[in-house]
Amino acid sequence: MSRQLSRNRARNSPRKTAGWLFDLKAAVIVIAFIVAAYAVTSGFYRLQITEGESLAAKAAAQQFVTEEDRERRGMILDKNGYPLVFSTYVFRVGMTPADVHTRKDGVEDRDIVRQFGIHLDLDEEATEDILIQIRTDRATGWRGLEKQLSGHQPLSYVTIATEVPETDAMALKDWLDDNGVGGVRFDAEERRVYNNES
User: What CA–CA distance (Å, rounded) separates 118 from 139?
Assistant: First the structure.
């Protein structure tokens, strides 16, 4: 009987060893997978949550904007040096409502629209309409889905003001640039001024 037990033990021993070895390999693979998944997840968390704002700001700073310098037509002077004809520029200011925003802290939509009103001489009703357009076209999540399903199409371009003097347009442009506001376009239109007082 003891012989038979020893034979049974000998037969069962490799199977137990093989089963135990398989369990060890499976455990090592599972642990390696968990460690790799943790490393990838923590990397994505760091990129998206922890450093997301600063990385987005760095990416935005790397973008460049091309600006076209318009040549100015010269003045025509009389024999005494007084200008008979000279050029001035007026601007048409427009926006893409969904793109009017900034990543700068402390600057909200209402602040941007308030600057539109100050520099473009817009009344309170016009500025409120602009604010509504911006917020409507930028709607995301459930509200955005609701608007999209109801057939709302975001506006690609809206003219805010025309015949804006160059000083006012450039003051607004400087404020928008300083605060990183996008989605606003300035189109220069040349005007020739004829001075007939000779």
Answer: 26
